[in-house]
Backbone:
């Protein structure tokens, strides 16, 4: 993988991707002096049935399209998780690989993050639920809502995790005055106490 370039200290755009052969989530963050701003997020769906090679080509094409449209400076992608279904893991790894190839073709540095690390970075808990991650993202990014797709939310989370990794920040340090735009508490438990309406 390419070496991190401390993008978050000089501004630019981070593309986060949650790879998949059925749905690929993506999120774009603009790095600014005051923190990060969500530029766009969404989920691209591929046919459930069909030739696997054609799906991989579609993933490559769509990733390349997003890159051409927004010209991100770095790609942050969620790494594979280990599961019991070997075939599913293999397909997911291929999906991740073609998305990475699309970025490397444009000389864009790529960094992988394990799912647990992303959750730890966003909520302070590596075993947090998707709903907890989404609620904290609303707080960190100071936005009212996220896309309905959890794949898109996961991609945004990967991009925010990368921003934190570049700056050496975290939800805890930002809440303690470390900078950024987060408005909330230093951990998930305190966030729930202070924002009960955001957690259902």
Residues:
């Amino acid at each position: 993988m390419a070496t991190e370039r401390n993008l978050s200290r000089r501004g630019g755009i981070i593309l986060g991707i949650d790879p998949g052969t059925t749905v690929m989530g993506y999120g774009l963050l603009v790095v600014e002096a005051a923190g990060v701003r969500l530029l766009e997020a969404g989920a691209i769906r591929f046919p459930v049935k069909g030739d696997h090679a054609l799906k991989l080509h579609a993933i490559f094409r769509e990733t390349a399209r997003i890159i051409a449209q927004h010209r991100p400076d770095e790609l942050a992608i969620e790494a594979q998780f280990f599961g019991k279904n070997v075939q599913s893991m293999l397909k997911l790894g291929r999906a991740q690989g073609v998305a990475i190839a699309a970025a490397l073709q444009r000389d864009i540095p790529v960094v992988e993050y394990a799912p647990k690390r992303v959750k730890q970075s966003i909520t302070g808990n590596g075993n947090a639920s998707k709903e907890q991650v989404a609620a904290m993202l609303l707080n960190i990014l100071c936005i009212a809502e996220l896309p309905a797709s959890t794949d898109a939310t996961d991609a945004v989370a990967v991009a925010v995790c990368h921003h934190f990794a570049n700056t050496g920040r975290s939800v805890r340090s930002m809440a303690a005055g470390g900078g950024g735009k987060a408005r909330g508490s230093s951990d998930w438990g305190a966030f729930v106490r202070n924002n009960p309406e955001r957690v259902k």
Summary: Strands lie at 12-18, 23-32, 35-45, 74-78, 110-113.
